[in-house]
Amino acid sequence: MPRWGRALWLAIGAAVLLRLFLLAWMPLTDPAEGRYGEIGRKMAELGDWITPWHQYGVPFWGKPPLSFWMTALSLEGLGVHEFAARWPHFLAGVATAWCVWNVARQRAAHEGAIAVGVLGTALLFFLSSGAVMTDAALVLGTTLATTGTWLALSSNHPAQRRRQAWCAFVGAAIGILAKGPLALVLVGTPLLLWAAWCGRWRALWEALPWVRGLALMLALCAPWYLAAEWKTPGFFEYFFVGEHFHRFATPGWSGDLYGKAHHAPKGMIWVFAAGACMPWTLVLPAWALWRRLRAPGLSVSAPQSATSGPWALTPRETERFVGLWAVVPLLSFTASSNIIWTYVLPAMPGLAWWAARRWGSDPASGLRWATSGVWMAVLAWACLAWFLNANGRLERSSAKGLVQACEAAWARHAPAPQPPSGPHAPESAADGPARLVLLGRRSFSAHFYTEGRAVRVDELVQAPARWPSGGTCLAVKLDDPLSMDAARTGVTLVEDLGVHHERQLWWALPPAGAKERP
Hints:
Layout: H1 3-25, H2 32-46, E1 53-55, E2 58-59, H3 66-78, H4 82-104, H5 109-121, H6 123-128, H7 135-154, H8 158-179, H9 182-198, H10 201-207, H11 210-231, H12 235-249, H13 268-276, H14 280-294, H15 315-332, H16 348-359, H17 363-390, H18 393-397, H19 400-413, E3 436-439, H20 444-449, E4 454-457, E5 472-477, H21 481-490, E6 492-500, E7 503-509
Parallel strand pairs: 3-4, 3-5
Antiparallel strand pairs: 1-2, 5-7, 6-7
Helix pairs in contact: 1-4, 1-5, 1-17, 2-3, 3-4, 4-5, 4-7, 4-16, 5-16, 5-17, 7-8, 7-9, 8-9, 8-11, 9-15, 14-17, 15-16
């Protein structure tokens, strides 16, 4: 391996160590991480592996369960904390990077390393590989399906072609269990366009075991979907019609049960993509300009190579496949305004492979620039994390500090009694006394950090049933004057516990008429 190749892998190792550190150091943030982390925690607590629960008694129909299964299993094995919630999503990101390395290295080993460096340190992928969301599982599925299909078409080794063909259908099943049929669109659209563009329908048909592969995919996916509709009727209509049609086709869709519609300008996905791929949005064009100035007239396109696979796929056909994988997911969302920047993620493995092929045309300078870009990203993302913590942004975005202040107040005012046992023990955290009362807006990270012992109410009269007689913590959003007034007049405020998570926190005695609780 050349010296700059070793230097690149060293830089990639530093990026991995930084991401591992941030898994444990950063608190779970609201709304996304707090929500999905708490859904996974409820799944582990209740032992319900069919229905994800948005709140106790309220099913979450917005996403399939794969990412919640991952979180729940990790929390069961490692305990309820940030690292455990994020660990399986980090592993999904590593597996995605491996898929990209495996396909990019087929032409040259250094291209595999460059592809991993570009993908792993691009801002959005770096953040999502370890964030408690559904996106890491989706991208793993779509990437495994896409790279599996390509290697089934292009590999010169029959055993690898057979293995990767089955991986393609397993990847499709992963994507469907992570996000739904959208995964098939993200994988199938570039593939069909490539086959039409290159006239490779026969190769595509013969490369994959379509009948047996689709049967395997359905066997992995269909049981959960059928069980979900049977257990909570109405899931099919909301998920397939609402989440997969109205979300993208109906501007300002108001049917979202768990969030709100977004109103980004049409075409904003390309702006999101530019930000998501930083610093490579700047580094790759800078390299191309430097190379042209250094050697005018020298092409920066990828070098040509021999045909590959039993169907003799040409380098031009490979370029078309990579380009379609990188661009089609972005084109699919160009006309939609109800989007967020994570919609760029399915395109990022393809973009990283495309960048590696560009740099592969000049290994000497490509490895140097890629190594410099990875170190630049490591420094930039470390500084960004420090800045967000120093200016209080992390504290404001997570209830971890709020819950820590609440636990300290409990130790002073009401030491926790022995856990109840016997037939009258609470069946879940929702049945026990409230450790924290949130008046007004919800904070899912507060529910996560209290392990379900937080209560969210719109009015204080809804809280007494779980308000311990010795008092509990009461938190109110600072920008909610009506709730602030209700707190000051509706309960007895014993101690001011300060401002945390943009909320005023008090130790408060229960409202008049509250039931006695231990």
